[in-house]
Each structure stands twice: as C-alpha cells, then as structure tokens.
TrEMBL record:
<dbReference type="GO" id="GO:0016787">
    <property type="term" value="F:hydrolase activity"/>
</dbReference>
<dbReference type="Pfam" id="PF00702">
    <property type="entry name" value="Hydrolase"/>
</dbReference>
<feature type="region of interest" description="Disordered">
    <location>
        <begin position="405"/>
        <end position="434"/>
    </location>
</feature>
<dbReference type="InterPro" id="IPR036412">
    <property type="entry name" value="HAD-like_sf"/>
</dbReference>
<feature type="compositionally biased region" description="Basic and acidic residues">
    <location>
        <begin position="423"/>
        <end position="434"/>
    </location>
</feature>
<dbReference type="InterPro" id="IPR006439">
    <property type="entry name" value="HAD-SF_hydro_IA"/>
</dbReference>
<protein>
    <submittedName>
        <fullName>Hydrolase</fullName>
    </submittedName>
</protein>
<keyword id="KW-0378">Hydrolase</keyword>
<dbReference type="InterPro" id="IPR023214">
    <property type="entry name" value="HAD_sf"/>
</dbReference>
<dbReference type="InterPro" id="IPR023198">
    <property type="entry name" value="PGP-like_dom2"/>
</dbReference>
<dbReference type="InterPro" id="IPR036691">
    <property type="entry name" value="Endo/exonu/phosph_ase_sf"/>
</dbReference>
<dbReference type="Pfam" id="PF03372">
    <property type="entry name" value="Exo_endo_phos"/>
</dbReference>
<dbReference type="InterPro" id="IPR005135">
    <property type="entry name" value="Endo/exonuclease/phosphatase"/>
</dbReference>
<feature type="domain" description="Endonuclease/exonuclease/phosphatase">
    <location>
        <begin position="222"/>
        <end position="474"/>
    </location>
</feature>
C-alpha cells in the first residue's frame, strides 16, 4: 500500500509590507522621520515587521517622548507614504491571480493598522483576498502566532496545510509559531533557510504548484487498544483490518495485542511491524528504520519505532499504563477529593515518566516524535476536578495533545474513548459508567490537520459483544499530521 501524498494546499497567507507591496522601505523612512535620525542595522529588530505600537514604545524608551503620540505620528507618516507610492513587489499580482485560478483562497495578514491595510487593499484589489487580518484585529500581533491563527480560523483551514509568505524574521516567527509552512522573500534583511521554511529572492515565477510542494507529506497516526487482542469479538482480526482501512491510517500504535496482533495485522495489510513484548506493537505502511525501547517490555510500558516518511523520519511510540486504581471511578463512585485522586496516579505517572525518559534517550534533533496510547487516565485539558498529573507530565515534556489542538473545547468535542461497550458499570449495580478520553495521540514537531475518534457501527453493550462490528472496548483516536519538510 502506497503512502499518503502531500496534503492539498488549503490556503496561502500573505504578509503585506515588503512582501506584496514595497512598503518596508516606506515604513523605514517613516520611522526615520519620526525618530529624527537615520536608522542603522542595529535598529532593524525593532522596526522590520513590527507593529506601530511596538516601534513607538521602542522610540519612547529611547527618547522619553510619549508613546501614544509617537504611534500617531508613525501611523500618519507611513499612511501618507503608502497613499503616495504603493507599488506591488515583482511577481506578487501574478501569483495572486494564479492562486485565484487554482481555487486556492488567500488572506492578507499584516502587522499594520486597518487604515493602512485598507489603503493597500485598494491598490491590490480587495477581491483578491478572502480574509484580511491587521494589528487592530488580534490582541497580539507578530511575532506572536495570533494573526496567522486568526486568518486560518476565518478561512476554516488548518495552519499545517497552509503556506505563509513573509519578508521579515518577525513575520516568519509568527507564521512558524502558528504551524504554517513558510516561503520567505526577504526585503531589507536576510532570512536563513530552516526546516519547513523556503527562501526565495523574489515572488517572480513562484507558482501555486511550488507553494503546494512546501506543505509536507501527510502522516495519519492511530492509537488503538485491541482489547485482549480482539478475542472478545467474533472474526476480530478481519474486523480490525477493516477498521484500519476505514481510518486510512499510515501508522497504528497498538495496545493489548495478545502477542501476535501486530504481525498478523501487518501481514494482512502488507505493512511493516514491530512487536514489543506480549502487549505492544506498531504497524506501519511506511518502512520501519529502527526499533526503539525494550523489545521485551512488559504488559505495561512503552515501545517505539523510527519510521521513514519520504525523506523524513518520525519516532512513533505506543504506551499502555496501568488500569488501577482508576481515577474516574474513584471520583464518581467513591467521591475522593482532588489530592487523593492525584496521589493515586502515582503508578501511571511513574510508567509515563519511564516512557518519556526512553523517548528522550533515543530522540535525535530534527526528528518529530509521536506518543500514542491507552493511559487509563483522563486529561487535565478535559477535567478540572483534579490535577490529572499523567497528562500534565507529557505536556511538561513538550508533547502536545493533538486531539485538543484540533478540538480545544472539551464540552463541544469530548472525544470519549472509554467506553463504547460500557454504558453502565459492569459490576451489576446499574451505575452509569464514567465516559472519559483516556486514549491519546501526542506529538512534538508535527503540524496537526485534524483529529477524531473512531468506532465502527453501533456496538452492543457488554456482555453481548461477540457480534459487534467494532472489536474493542475503546474508541480509536486518529490524528492527521503534516510532517514538515527538511
């Protein structure tokens, strides 16, 4: 089975000053006029790509003048120059027209004020842009990611599937922090190439196809607890294969494999696999370059594999943490306070920290990391009744929760994974089973396009599960990533 292709280019987000129009020079002149002195190389970080308010505050600190008055003067000087001499940069209009013909939406994302942006939009043509975001539209402007994130929200597109076009280090930092691929076209100061960043001298000759090539390949990662290998459900292996195919997964981190599931699923799919101990496994349509961690790990623990995704490599780890004592039961049935709930997470916390140490020991610079698994613990991003230290420890280690990146509001999108077959507690008491998100796809160094849970069909509740189409007591979690280009 062939790997997934590059994601389609969903939008192109353009900086304005110095990128689309030759206004960085005008801004430089406006700052010199307001400062009453020539600017030097040392002044560039406080001027290029900066909002009026930032540069005004910098001038105020140096001169003792009132920052608000300086901001008004800067705005006026710059606006006057823009109205008198706005000139599109070479290739800018041709690229905008080509993107329009290709059906790729565009946005204007600038640190200038709305008044200045509107003047430039009149020159470029407002109909060329679906969205415009200015310094007046977000609480923070560049180099914070807020402007690019706001543009992506307005367009309804994930940042990882977008290219931002910038001319300054400040703007590049903003776009990269938002998760966009970047085409840098320096105007007044050089910009170095970097992973996920391409540098060109000019927009002349840039095509939509070239921009689409800047968006890295897709990697769809699935976390799935197979429930004792699937043995509780009839014809479970065939149903597992169907589920993986429906998910269109590239890599699946497995828990409760009953020893043979990783190999048997990989053989059925024509994939690569790594078996670790009697409980963990990884299957991948991409080649596995190396196995990571203890190959004889016990029932609980973590194991990983380094996977080749085109020209890049990604470390994918799968983990299974101990199921007892189970915090949601202790909260719902026993009424334990937060301090006791957190104290009872000690075994899982130790297991996760061991996994994090193993990940750190095998990590290489520039190689993204994915950690999936059944943590048997809720997330602090979902519940506030305790600290839930397991998910916090992963976050403190630099791993991001891909599902909550895609769905920040737990009330709107709870993402429950436990349990599709346990609506009531299995002790016969009739008590409602706590429904929680305890399975995760965490990452470092990738862009999140989407994340979702998967359950096929409508599973019958325990114990009438043998005929279920879904061969597990957990929902799976599937996240689509973009792997940044080198």
């Amino acid at each position: 089975m062939s790997p997934h292709p590059h994601l389609p280019l969903r939008a192109v987000l353009f900086d304005m000053d110095g990128t689309l129009v030759d206004t960085e020079r005008l801004w430089w002149e406006a700052v010199e006029q307001t400062a009453r002195r020539p600017l030097t190389e040392a002044d560039r970080p406080e001027v290029l790509g900066r909002a009026v308010e930032h540069t005004a505050a910098w001038l105020a600190a140096a001169t003792g003048a009132d920052a608000a008055a300086l901001a008004a003067e800067l705005d006026g000087e710059f606006a006057r120059r823009v109205r008198a001499g706005t000139v599109p940069r070479p290739g800018a209009l041709d690229l905008l027209d080509a993107l329009a013909r290709a059906g790729v939406p565009t946005a204007l994302v600038t640190a200038s004020s709305r008044a200045v942006a509107d003047t430039v939009l009149d020159v470029l043509g407002r109909d060329r842009f679906a969205v415009s975001v200015t310094a007046d539209d977000t609480g923070r402007t560049k180099p914070a990611p807020d402007p690019y994130l706001a543009a992506c929200r307005a367009l309804g597109v994930p940042p990882a599937a977008c290219v931002a076009v910038e001319d300054t280090e400040t703007g590049v930092a903003s776009a990269e922090a938002a998760g966009c691929a970047v085409l840098a076209v320096p105007s007044l100061a050089p910009i170095a190439a970097a992973p996920g960043r391409t540098v060109r001298d000019s927009l002349a000759g840039v095509t939509p196809e070239e921009l689409a090539g800047l968006v890295g390949p897709e990697l769809r990662v699935m976390s799935w607890n197979l429930w004792l290998g699937g043995a509780m459900v009839d014809d479970h292996r065939a149903k597992q294969v169907k589920a993986v195919l429906e998910a269109e997964a590239d890599v699946v981190g497995l828990q409760e494999t009953a020893g043979t599931a990783a190999r048997e699923l990989a053989e059925a799919l024509g994939w690569h696999h790594h078996r670790a101990g009697e409980n963990l496994g990884i299957i991948s349509r991409h080649p596995i370059r190396a196995t990571l961690g203890d190959p004889e790990v016990g029932f609980y623990g973590a194991a990983g594999a380094r996977i080749a995704v085109g020209a890049r490599e990604v470390d994918v780890w799968t983990a299974h943490l101990h199921y007892t004592p189970y915090g949601p039961y202790e909260a719902a049935f026993d009424g334990l306070p937060a301090a006791e709930l957190d104290a009872h997470e000690g075994v899982r916390l130790a297991q996760l920290r061991d996994a994090l140490e193993r990940i750190a020991a095998t990590a290489d610079d520039g190689v993204p990391v994915v950690l999936v698994g059944d943590f048997n613990a809720p997330s602090h991003l979902d519940r506030t009744d305790a600290g839930w230290p397991v998910s916090r420890a992963a976050e403190e280690a630099g791993l991001r929760d891909s599902f909550r990146e895609a769905h920040p509001d737990p009330a709107a999108e709870p993402g429950v994974t436990w349990s599709p077959v346990h609506p009531v507690h299995e002790d016969g008491s009739g008590r409602t089973e706590p429904q929680d998100r305890i399975d995760y796809v965490l990452h470092r160094g990738l862009g999140v396009v989407d994340s979702r849970t998967l359950v096929r069909g409508t599973p019958r509740p325990w114990p009438q599960v043998a005929g279920n189409e879904w061969p597990s007591d957990h929902a799976a979690v599937i996240t689509t990533f973009v792997v940044p280009r080198k």
